[in-house]
Amino acid sequence: MAKIISVHSFRGGTGKSNTTANLATLLALAGKRVGVIDTDIHSPGIHVIFGLQEESVEFTLNDYLWGRCRIEQAAREVVSWPEERLPNGEPRGRVILIPSSVRAGEIARILRDGYDVGLLTDGFRALIRELDLDYLFIDTHPGVNEETLLSIALSDTLLLIMRPDNQDFQGTAVTVELARRLEVNDLQIIVNKVPPGMDVDLLRAQVEAAYKAQVVGLLPLDGDIARLGSAGIFAMRFPDHPLTRGLQQVADHFLT
């Protein structure tokens, strides 16, 4: 049974898309078939991290929402290891991305006309069925809108990304309250961009007490990921980096 994980943050700049891309890749490295769908239709960007070029994309999520294609026709394999196998002989997994359009006219149409949000429900289920997924990550639009609320309601897990910042603390509280009202059973938190010298044990205790949710990762603020500038999967470029080790702990959490 595939697991649907919505990755969300109340504000932009938390590292949500980078975290999503890296977790999906680490799960694929462990042999899982992972789908990633970019529902940040107003400002899509996760395709850049995966190195997917606009000219190579025939269909996007926008095309599915406007009835131009089936949702699986918008799927593109972005990470795989065709010749590599796990120690038990099983093949490595793969990451399959459903991007949103970066064309200005199509983004403007979404802003002007909207779309039938209910189509996302059918789309998520079709992706899991047609692509035989183990996990489906939903990279959401920051803040609160209709498609975000729907994604949260349909998810098995809501993974909230926040920074140790007072604005993030307040905004995350809003999201947590909405998630409780939507009866989300599994709410988990990653605190990202933790500055050096901060007491991580105290920070974990404060966040868990404030939101009554498990902190599954505390990821360090680091210049290497800023220098990479979304030009690739950080965990693959820097496999022994402290940030990669933190991401791997979160991926292992989802594997258990």
Give a short overview.
With 256 residues, this protein is of the alpha/beta class. The chain contains 11 helices and 8 strands. The chain has an 8-stranded mixed β-sheet, sandwiched between helices.
For this entry, give a set of tags.
256 residues, alpha/beta, Rossmann fold, eight-stranded mixed β-sheet, 11 helices, 8 strands, 19% strand, ParA/MinD_ATPase, MinD/ParA family protein, P-loop_NTPase
What does this structure look like?
This protein is α/β, with parallel strands linked by helices. The chain has a single domain, classed as 3-Layer(aba) Sandwich (Rossmann fold), CATH 3.40.50. The protein is 42% helix and 19% strand. The protein is built from eleven helices and eight strands. It has helices at residues 16-29, 46-49, 61-65, 104-113, 118-131, 146-154, 166-181, 200-211, 223-228, 234-237, 242-255; strands spanning 3-8, 33-38, 76-80, 94-98, 135-139, 157-162, 187-194, 214-220. It has an eight-stranded mixed sheet, with helices on both faces. α1 packs across α11 (242-255).
Helix content estimate? 40-55%
Strand order of the largest sheet: 3-4-2-5-1-6-7-8
Uncertain spans, ≥5 residues at pLDDT below 50?
none
**Estimated structural class:** alpha/beta
**What is the first-to-last residue Cα distance?**
14 Å
Please tell me how large the radius of gyration is: 17 Å
Q: What does the oligomeric state look like here?
A: single chain
**What is the CATH class?**
Alpha Beta
E-strand count: 8
The run of helices and strands is EHEHHEEHHEHEHEHEHHH
The rough form would be described as globular
CATH superfamily: P-loop containing nucleotide triphosphate hydrolases
CATH topology: Rossmann fold
The overall number of domains is 1
> Which CATH-level-2 architecture?
3-Layer(aba) Sandwich
Count of DSSP H/I helices:
11
InterPro entries: CobQ/CobB/MinD/ParA_Nub-bd_dom, P-loop_NTPase, ParA/MinD_ATPase
Pfam families: CbiA
Protein name: MinD/ParA family protein
